[in-house]
Amino acid sequence: MPVRRVEHIMGLPISVDLRDGDAALAERAFASLRQADAQFSPFKPDSEVSRLDRGELTREELTPDLVEVLSLCDWYEDSTGGAFTARVPGRGLDPCAVVKGWAVQRAADILREGGASSYCLNAGGDVVTAGEPEPGKPWRVGVRHPDLADQVCVVLGVRDGAVATSALYERGQHILDGRTGQPVTGILSVTVFSDDLAIADTTATAAFALGRDGIEWAASQEDCEVFIVDEDRKVFSSPGLPVHIC
């Protein structure tokens, strides 16, 4: 029987639809997510991130996992010329834009390594899938319309891959341009499809932080396909995007 479960972790609902595993395997995946929240949250004073931000840890004292996360932050900051950053002025160290995708991808890897071949992990709309929910059918991932909450603007058919979206409709102007500290303009929604959710999620956020310049930048990223809506409601879609035809 499928295992379906939802928990509120990292400030958002995370669900699993596991078609060929068991409850114990699902618990291992969720345990890794809870551990990531405890380790990386800038809102928990005893987390490794908070301790680093307060100067209680040196770079040499960090765990390999945090070194990996911070290295990803540095790479995307360099690639976007500072538009993406884990250190927005006035906020302190906040690697959450990388952590969510990284942690959920790791949880998905736990499912795969535990023998599961058909599952969907959904973290607030950012999704990792494997296999098929039914023979011959992909997992269908809807991308919400940026203006109409009850509609989707595209549906992707995904078997083994990840989809992430950065947009204004859930949290308003929460993405800032790290170069100016100001809210981003020019873009309403950025969706990225990739093999790995850490890449898909961070690329979507970084592209959004770049504003209109993020359209070309995201499309140029290796192993990424994009679906972007700008503030004029013009759509930009990669030719390799796995659009599902109903």
UniProtKB/TrEMBL annotation:
<keyword id="KW-0274">FAD</keyword>
<keyword id="KW-0285">Flavoprotein</keyword>
<dbReference type="Pfam" id="PF02424">
    <property type="entry name" value="ApbE"/>
</dbReference>
<keyword id="KW-0460">Magnesium</keyword>
<dbReference type="InterPro" id="IPR024932">
    <property type="entry name" value="ApbE"/>
</dbReference>
<protein>
    <recommendedName>
        <fullName>FAD:protein FMN transferase</fullName>
        <ecNumber>2.7.1.180</ecNumber>
    </recommendedName>
</protein>
<keyword id="KW-0808">Transferase</keyword>
<keyword id="KW-0479">Metal-binding</keyword>
<dbReference type="GO" id="GO:0016740">
    <property type="term" value="F:transferase activity"/>
</dbReference>
<dbReference type="InterPro" id="IPR003374">
    <property type="entry name" value="ApbE-like_sf"/>
</dbReference>
